[in-house]
Amino acid sequence: DPGFVPAALQLAELQQLRRLPALAQQQLAALARRHPGREDVRLARAALDIELGHLKGAERVLEAHVKRRPTDIANLARLANLARRQLRPKRVAHWLRKQIAARPDWLRPRIALARSLAANGRAQEGMRVLKQALTLAPGVFRLQAALGRVALRGGLRTTARAALQRSLAIRPQALEVKRLLAYLDRKGPDPLVKRWARDAKALARAAWKGRHAKEDAEVLLDTTAYDVLQSGLARRFQQRVVLIHNRKGVAAWRYQQIDYLPDTQQLEVRVARIIRPDGSEVEARHHDVQMTQPSIRMYYDRRVKVVRFIGLRPGDVVELQTVLS
User: Looking at residue 232, what is its pLDDT?
Assistant: First the structure.
């Protein structure tokens, strides 16, 4: 039966998986004409639009849908992911709160909300979200570990240590928690950074006095160093210092991305700044973005730290220091 909608939707999905989006679009457009009132057809078209990068139209369809079905967790999550792709943290928080209201017993959106808030400078608010969840499920490892990470992002080391120790009591084999506790128990300056970090201002002054290279951006320093802990786990320090020569260099270095796995890794942006020839400095901004490819999200909560050097111009020097634990 050529008019059997479930089979036609499955065919469009198969065409999309086989990287034939034009055929999938034709299939769904024909279905929409024959069945203009079918919600499953509208949602399938929205899903395809998301894959093709047509986010605004898909967002309108999904928002209309969740107004009619406010407990549709899957599409509330899809809207939160759309907001992440568009770098709209307030909308991310809005849709995650909607998920919590629809499913108060579901912990995943609570953890995601806390991490999103912390990544945007609201760690205290993120901790309140997790503490409220812990009143419902105090013995859940994921909540205690997430509270530790959010507290650490907010600079509350004592609170972070206590939460991580509670999570380790629940799951003693959790290596990532052991690694974070080892990081917190370290005393004095970070030996890895102390050993390898260079003075970016001194490099910049020498570069401004010297002969300029012909590239769009001249790499003055590119260091990667590792430190293996007693537990057998490793930490990675990276420092890049780059002199920008022209507009192409500005375009290449205005945004930098570092990917990591928040469930097993801690990424610290130690220094992210612009050094100007007059000696002034401009701090860069950074935030987390969740990877949106389904093949990645199926197995990992993978994030990208986006560092934005706002106001970068030719003649400036960029410095970026990170520690991945």
Answer: 61
